[in-house]
Amino acid sequence: MNERQDEQLRSLLRGALPPMRERELRQDLWPRMLRRLDDVPSRWTWLDYALAGVVLAGFIAYPEVIPWVLFHC
Amino acid sequence: MKSHPYLRAYMAGVVVPTVFLLVVFAVFCVVRLAYNPDLPLERILVFPLALVPAIWGGWNMVYVALRGRRRLPLGLHGALVPAVLVPLAVVAAHAFGFDPGGATGGILIVAPLLMIIYYLVWKYLVGFLNDMLGIS
After folding, report:
1. Fewest C-beta in 10 Å: which of A5, B15, B60, B87?
2. Is B93 on the interface with A (CB under 8 A)?
């Protein structure tokens, strides 16, 4: 490839790839991320504890189902 | 963060099973090396490795797609996953020639337990990840 072909190739590539606009982010995302991390997570309700207890009791009563449960995870 | 909601939903959905899979994989490896059981462990692993994370990601995408329409809370939405997963697992188990824990009879116990587990995991873990990725 000679110089002229190189230049042609460059101009073709420049034409095919439009210049990037807005390279900078419009705003800093880190404060938003920190706010999300500080958000109070959902609290466990009595129903959730009861359901977890049912699962535990199920595993104790029927330990043979544990491989099946693991198989689905 | 407004763009690519389905991609974000998929990514949030696959995290939990992918991470938990490492635990399952470690358990299977220990069992294989320590006890050398007469079980086709490698064939058993195909189902959770190949399908489960993808189904979770896809189901979370469905949750996003239902935004604005009538949709269930995230926990209940997740509790429906076993309705798809259990029949697939039974088919996979039969196809791969093994019976983990009394297969067909045990399903009556496994299915409700799985639905409860999925309800809690989707409500808290997937919900947390969805919040982190800005999926409502």
Report:
1. A5
2. yes
ipTM of this complex: 0.73
Tell me, yes or no, if A19 comes closer than 8 A to chain B by beta carbon.
no
Domain assignments of chain A as residue spans, ordered by start: 45-73
Domain count, chain B: 1
What pTM was estimated for this model as a whole? 0.72
Nearest to A69 among B114, B119, B120 (CB): B114
Tens place of pLDDT for every residue, chain B, 136 residues? 567 888 999 998 999 988 988 887 887 788 778 877 776 767 777 777 778 889 999 999 999 888 777 778 888 999 998 888 888 877 877 777 766 555 555 778 888 899 999 999 999 999 989 888 887 6
Please indicate if any CB of chain B lies within 8 Å of the CB of A25.
no
Calpha distance B68→B83 (Å, rounded): 24
Rounded CA separation B108/B116 (Å): 13
Full domain range(s) for residue B71: 5-132
Measured CA angle at B53 (ends B128, A36), to 5 deg? 15
Q: Do A69 and B17 touch (CB under 8 A)?
A: no
